[in-house]
Structure prediction request, 408 residues.
Amino acid sequence: MIPPDSPRTVGTVPVADSSRIPLHAPEFAADPHRAYAEMRRRYGSLVPVELAPDVPATLVIGYHTAVRILNDPERFPADPRAWEKDVPADCPVLPFLGFRPTAGKTTGMEYQRYRQATNAGIDGVDLYALHATIEQIAIPRINTFCEAGAADLLRQYAIPVAFEVVNNQLGCPPEIGVRAATALAAMFEGNDAEAASGMLNGALVELVALKRARPGDDITSRLLQHHAQLDDVEMLYQLVSFYGGACELQQNLIANALLLILTDERFAGSVLGGSLSTRDALDEVLFHDPPLANLCVTFPRQPLVVEDTWLPAHQPVVISMAACNNDPAIHSGNLAGNRAHLAWGLGAHACPAPSMAYLIAQDAIDQLLDALPDLRLAGKITWRPGPIHRAVAALPVRFPPSTPFKTF
Prediction:
């Protein structure tokens, strides 16, 4: 093992902190795939990076290396408690990497207890009824801009649809959901992470109290009724995980797939013409530009050597789903129908609801394309900076104005 105070190394060469690649920089967000290619050339599968200023980590960009790490929770646990002892409360990535009493941040019996409750909450979702729910949410949202002939599909469609669907499944009333949405947006932008986290927690404490008093047929109520007997603090963080994961993933998946459909001739002609499905567009996005690009995080209990690279104890090891999916070692080039990507994670901490996420994104996109089939991109696309997500800052479009659509 390497002594705790020894320099970090990649291979046999010491790496100074100044050489770490800043994933929080706008330059990285603008062209991450070029950055991944350069990382692969310089470092191979394991890359020294900064998640935020003075927050070092190792980014895993090799597919096979990532699979081994994700399937080895004993050496690579997800519990961040030892790491966060020395992290300031205002660290912009702490809301995403810090400890919570959830399946995603625990191991052993703790993990089993939380995962069983989460699975029970999700398993109660009626996917057939969800189709109708998405239509009931999507059409009124389209009606707010269909007569204008122009819209920002991110702010006016993808974000509100994602939040309304998640709120619906959690049994969250609009007045609480709006506060949760505002807080989550601030957290993902890195704006006053501590205050945003407090705002989110306050909203969700109210939701838990509401569902204890008046349970319904929703995920929050099923979590409360589960035999794990989650207390109020545990309930709060289950809901934080649902919002943080589901909403950001869902809105970015919808927006990124729409961008592909609008800009790639294979999809612009084929999705609307019927030879390729929206599902194919989603699969390509999940391979090339997954909405949560660098997220599966582990914290080695002790210094480890992996592929001639020393990994310090208790320092984040982050799986880059985007880079791993595009690893030349496994990338065939033909992605239609190929779902062997890491966008949902892998192993014990994989996403518990990929079918639900697919359904929401596919139905939201299909509703929009059915209503406004002649969408055209109307501006330059920029990407939000940040180490975790792959997200457009806006998705401006133009289309022939249409009268509002009937709702049932």
